[in-house]
Amino acid sequence: MSALLEKELQELKEVDWSRISPKLEKQLLEKEGDTIIDVVHQNLETIIENNRGKEEALIEVLHQVQDLIGFIPKAVQKKIARGLGVLPTEVASVISFYSHFSEKAKGKYQIALCKGTACYVKGSAEIIDKIKRKYGIESGDTTDDGFFSLEVVRCLGACGLAPVMTVNGKAHGLLNPEKAISVLEQYKNGEM
Ligand code: FES
Q1: Is the distance from the beta carbon of residue 39 to the nearest atom of ligand 1 less than 6 Å?
Q2: Does residue 128 form part of some domain?
Q3: Phi then psi for 87, rounded to 5 degrees?
């Protein structure tokens, strides 16, 4: 085994793989005997081999990796950077620029809170503020316990229910700060 491969595998081993995408979970079940590191590494090799040396393919590669794993940890960013011939800092800045990409695993419950005009005039800013303070997260973050990820978005297309949030895609409308927290606590307690 080359020193580089050994280093890459070691870096992958240091990642917290406790929250992976359903797609990767399925592959892991199908490839009996393989570890999560084996499965991730094989997939990355294939994606990178198809794009080796192509700097212009960076966003496409990030989409494929985000879709596969559910997040793009630093160890994976380094491997992508080496494969495509770009700087790791360039990979990191693209990930932080696009909200679709995430360096950390998303929470079990993904909250999208609307700050579009209809929701804003009905008090969404107070709801956002309450959620941020209650769970100690900013937009784009995940709570340390892995329960919630928060994204503040522009119009969820349900303005009649303003102010609105979705949790894993399910809409909850006509909110106020207390009602929003009560809904989230129900998710946390397994009552939703
Ligand atoms: S502005 Fe919030 S759903 Fe449209």
Answers
A1: no
A2: yes
A3: -80, 145
